[in-house]
Amino acid sequence: MGHNEERRGPRNGHLLWKYEGVGEAHSSVSGGSVSARGVLYVHSAPAALCPHVEWAVAGVVGVPVKLDWEPQPAAPNTYRAELNWQGAPGLSAAIASALRGWQRLRYEITEDATPGCDGVRYSYTPTLGFFSAVTSASGEVLVSEARLRDAMERAAAQGLDLAEEIDKLLGRAWDEELEPFRYAGEGAPVRWLHATG
């Protein structure tokens, strides 16, 4: 009943990706390098976009991806899905790039911190566009000293509200817009994309 597929490196034959019909795709990070993990949350997508999301993610990971789409109660006639992944650091950026600018899609992609790499969160909504931030091990947005100083200087020079400037750095507007979609998806089926090696 399950479909199995794997892809090996052209030079060394190391396993790069393995897809099992139950929805798990395994990635082997060659040479024992560090692997990262995270989650793709598709908060809402019209039915017509669902296969395109799968194809876009498959184009990044190199194997077919099939998500379990569930109706999204927060937005009638849309669907939601989650994909837990593990692979090379930077995979979240590649997925975010593949999905960036899709006007009727709401999504978030997280990547946990690994040795030598910060964690990151990408968010997209049709009304706000794209947001990215560095994150801590617990998923909190981290703002660098330079960005804080810039916000303080901009607020002072232009008479802006410093709290609003900090909210922009933290992505508060994205959190507020996506929060109803996050709660509506609690308990939904999740697919896994794993790294091995």
Uncertain stretches of 5 or more adjacent residues: 1-5, 7-26
Number of helices: 5
> Span from first to last CA?
26 Å
Radius of gyration, CA atoms, in whole angstroms: 18 Å
The share of residues in helices is: 25-40%
- Number-wise, the strands total 11
Strand fraction: 25-35%
What coarse outline follows from CA principal-axis ratios? Answer: globular
Q: How many structural domains can be distinguished in the coordinates?
A: 1
Largest sheet: 11 strands, mixed
Element order, helices and strands?
EEEEHEEHEEEEHHHE
Category by helix and strand content: alpha+beta
Give the integer mean of the pLDDT values.
Answer: 83
Protein name: DUF3145 domain-containing protein
InterPro entries: DUF3145
List the helices and strands and how they pair.
Layout: E1 4-8, E2 15-20, E3 24-28, E4 36-46, H1 50-61, E5 70-71, E6 78-87, H2 91-99, E7 106-111, E8 119-125, E9 129-135, E10 141-142, H3 145-158, H4 162-170, H5 172-184, E11 190-196
Parallel strand pairs: 3-11, 6-11
Antiparallel strand pairs: 1-2, 2-3, 4-6, 4-7, 5-6, 7-8, 8-9, 9-10
